[in-house]
DNA sequence: AGTTAGCACTCATTGCTTGTGAGTGCTAAC
DNA sequence: GTTAGCACTCACAAGCAATGAGTGCTAACT
């Protein structure tokens, strides 16, 4: 569809614009040593590229900037990305070599590394509760009326919830219930817990205790595992350093959206079927506030099943090649780290 | 020190400037129905107030704006604050009337309420681990080499840490250790755990197990309770709506500081001896980035001991009276809520 | 046919001037 | 002690010309 020369020019423009954030003119392109054409020729090609929708002009007689379509083409036809210095690679490697033994810490630290290395905002989605199972269940009375329910998952995550004890339930009864749950529900994937509660536990529970119904309601609420899919953000303020966001109003919408955990979670959940590194440019993100942003996501996984997502949010004028290299390395390292832990 | 009239004029200026964010001129003051003086008289008084350091002039022939000293005087001599509508009070009351049974949720929701009602940034410091004690200790093997240590506190908080099991320690040995810890350490305040570990547990541990030293190291690290003093932020982007921060560069430093949890914790820790609502205006915050901000803090407590802090960060031009009323109500309601729970 | 030089044209940006108005300080009168 | 009057200051907006980067088009060149 595009001639070799057009491709080359488009590439130069995107590269240049990513670096400078200023519209790129024909003269500056022509002056580059690897471009052997005069400004006039470049201009002709640029006019064509604009007509084809790959470039835009902020106003007549300004240079050109890439359109979303232009970025898309750039990303899709990029030379295999390897634009990351060995020193940086080392930073990542030594980080993952360190003994970090709490999942949450690893995720949080990864977010920090990502945002520091890229100078963009990083968004990490914690391990999917979906693919983990119950390791242990416990109910611990705090006083006569309340207790803490503790759920330990196979990955070592601990979730807890304070619940009210139905009046009249004795300590020994509670113990029986806990034992029953442990015998029946251990190793059941978290997302199946509730259905199992009714299919396997409910009947037996009826024989054990007189407060069958109340207890069932409590247990139901406990196992309603809020899928504690934590979202970790780092470097949100990096957004502010980008010249395209020097206007506070624009940045406000973005930061507001970043504070909305549920929305963020939805955006970060990988679209089924897709794998590897995904790039959503400008309006490809279906959120208005991100119309001038690009979101790059990758998933990390355990035994082939994706556990969570890492993401980088920046302006559409983003260092795609660089960010994508970094993301690939980190997602892979996360994956291997997890497999070392839990296999 | 100030005459009645000067006090009145200062008050009017601060009120006006809080509302409009524009320098206040003599004419506009004179026009207010409750002020019976001509602009000229006001001007004379304003000149005096400026000389005394209560007012500032952004430039010659502009109106006056309050200096830090002016705000300080305003806050210290404010008429008892009650500037909060009954409807708003209701919002708070119904919130605290709802059955919220997880501490963390309460804190987080309180942060939301605070930032929403004030349109400033709210900062909440979670309950001090200092004043809570151990309720239960548990060690749960995940596989041959790792285990999760779970600490439940008297307030129902659950903290967990994944640890490596020293090679050669059997399951039955672990059980003994756990039992020992529970018998010796339950009801000990968290911050005393480590010293007790050595004073009371260590010797007996030596008799129980052959891997005395390795285990002690592990337990030490577990009880090194990271005092999980969480900081909850809400409404950080409200900072961006203030006209004084329409310049991105200024706001960046503030947001960066807000992302630095340790610094924030230090700022929010109440200075010993002080109690009630504290106001730090402008440079009274010893952080450069907050030179144009005011931080209002209050503590919530249980049985007279302060558990945590709630804070509001806004521009120096802040609705002090309103914010202070809201903070007082919420800190008191938090206090009573806690006492209902844990008494 | 593809490439390039030349040229007129566009338009954001900058610097300059000028006018306007809000607000002040001072003085003299009340 | 208070106020009216007046000259003065200064930020800000509007208007205007100069600048220059960049374009589109045409005609000449290879």
TrEMBL record, chains A, B:
Gene Ontology terms describing biological process: negative regulation of DNA-templated transcription
InterPro entries: GAF-like_dom_sf, HrcA, HrcA_C, WH-like_DNA-bd_sf, WH_DNA-bd_sf, WHTH_HrcA_DNA-bd, WHTH_transcript_rep_HrcA_IDD
Keyword Transcription recorded: yes
Domain Heat-inducible transcription repressor HrcA C-terminal: residue ranges: 104-324
Ranges for domain Winged helix-turn-helix transcription repressor HrcA DNA-binding: 1-72
Keyword Nucleus: no
A Pfam family per the record: WHD_HrcA
GO terms for MF: DNA binding
Keyword vocabulary terms for this entry: Repressor, Stress response, Transcription, Transcription regulation
Family from the record: Belongs to the HrcA family.
Function text: Negative regulator of class I heat shock genes (grpE-dnaK-dnaJ and groELS operons). Prevents heat-shock induction of these operons.
Name under which the protein is recorded: Heat-inducible transcription repressor HrcA
Organism whose genome encodes this protein: Paenibacillus antarcticus
């Amino acid at each position: 569809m595009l001639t070799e020369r057009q491709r080359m020019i488009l590439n130069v423009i995107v590269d240049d614009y990513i670096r400078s954030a200023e519209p790129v003119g024909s003269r500056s392109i022509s002056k580059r040593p690897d471009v052997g054409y005069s400004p006039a020729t470049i201009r002709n090609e640029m006019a064509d590229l604009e007509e084809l929708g790959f470039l835009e002009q902020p106003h007549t007689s300004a240079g050109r900037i890439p359109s979303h379509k232009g970025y898309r083409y750039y990303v899709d036809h990029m030379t295999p990305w390897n634009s990351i210095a060995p020193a940086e690679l080392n930073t990542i490697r030594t980080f993952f070599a360190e003994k970090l033994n709490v999942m949450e810490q690893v995720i949080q630290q990864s977010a920090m590394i990502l945002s520091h290395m890229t100078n963009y905002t990083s968004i990490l989605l914690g391990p999917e509760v979906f693919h983990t199972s119950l390791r242990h269940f416990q109910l611990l009375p705090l006083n006569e009326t309340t207790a803490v329910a503790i759920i330990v998952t196979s990955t070592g995550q601990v979730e807890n919830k304070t619940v009210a004890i139905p009046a009249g339930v004795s300590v020994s009864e509670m113990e029986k219930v806990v034992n029953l749950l442990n015998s029946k529900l251990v190793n059941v994937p978290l997302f199946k817990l509730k259905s199992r509660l009714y299919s396997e536990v409910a009947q037996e529970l009826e024989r054990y205790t007189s407060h069958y119904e109340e207890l069932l309601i409590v247990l139901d609420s406990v196992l309603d595992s809020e899928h504690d899919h934590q979202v970790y953000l780092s470097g949100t303020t990096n957004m502010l350093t980008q010249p395209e966001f020097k206007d506070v109003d624009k940045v406000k919408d973005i930061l507001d959206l970043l504070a909305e955990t549920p929305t963020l979670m939805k955006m970060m959940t990988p679209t089924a079927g897709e794998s590897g590194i995904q790039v959503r440019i400008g309006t490809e993100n279906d959120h208005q506030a991100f119309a001038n942003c690009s979101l790059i996501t990758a998933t990390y996984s355990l035994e082939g099943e994706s556990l969570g997502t890492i993401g980088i949010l920046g302006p559409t004028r983003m260092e795609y090649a660089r960010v994508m290299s970094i993301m690939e390395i980190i997602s892979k390292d996360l994956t291997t780290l997890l497999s070392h832990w839990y296999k």
